[in-house]
Amino acid sequence: PPPVRIAPSILSADFAALGQEVRAIEAAGADWVHIDVMDGHYVPNLTIGPAVVKALRPHSALPFDVHLMISPVDGFLDAFAAAGADIITVHPEAGPHIHRSVQHIRSLGKKAGVSLNPATPANILDYLIDDVDLVLVMSVNPGFGGQSFIASQLRKIEAIRKMIDKSGRDIRLEVDGGIDADTAPLAIAAGADVLVAGTATFKGGPDAYAGNIRRLRGA
Ligand code: DX5
Ligand code: ZN
């Protein structure tokens, strides 16, 4: 099986010490930094914008995995690319033309992701799979950390794993929401190869991060 990447969501980090937190998770073995961007409109919560992504950029060499939960999203793609995002993921429900958004992200030289909410079917990918670098399956409704894993998403992950394998393309399959040491093995068995984890990474403070990340890997 492919190696599993761990992408801590800094939504659960100490916002007063974000630079330090990003350095700490890198030292603790994280593979990517997952950055949740929320606008209070597409989702009922507000987080951070491109200025914070830019400020964090010098603190880490890890890929910045920027998950945009904002609508309309297209007007912000250039700003997040310029701020230092490596992967930019958008929701099909958050704009009128998801294919155009994906094309735009790739035209900026960034990897493009598409994120599916719990009730969004896998077949929305039928005419996107040839143009994306990542599929993000939301295993909670977007907006907040600390929610419980929605088990029905496992069969969606299985279905998307098949689509990806059939495509023959190099596409990451990421799962986001309610991932902990109990749900991580289920998501991996279903075919996920990137695990986002906020609560499960940051609980216990910096001394616990390395052990938390190891447990997510199943080691
Ligand atoms: C939810 C975000 C997730 C969330 C994950 O909208 O996309 O990244 O922060 O948090 P946990 O791991 O606590 O469920
Ligand atoms: Zn996220």
UniProtKB/TrEMBL annotation:
Gene3D superfamilies: Aldolase class I. The active site is at D36 (proton acceptor), D176 (proton donor). Keywords: Carbohydrate metabolism, Cobalt, Isomerase, Manganese, Metal-binding, Zinc. Substrate binds at S9, H67, G143, F144, G145, G146, D176, G177, G178, G198, T199. GO terms for molecular function: D-ribulose-phosphate 3-epimerase activity; metal ion binding. Pfam families: Ribul_P_3_epim (PF00834). InterPro entries: Aldolase_TIM, Ribul_P_3_epim, Ribul_P_3_epim-like, RibuloseP-bd_barrel. CDD domains: RPE (cd00429). PANTHER family: RIBULOSE-5-PHOSPHATE-3-EPIMERASE (PTHR11749). This is Ribulose-phosphate 3-epimerase. It comes from Sphingopyxis panaciterrulae.
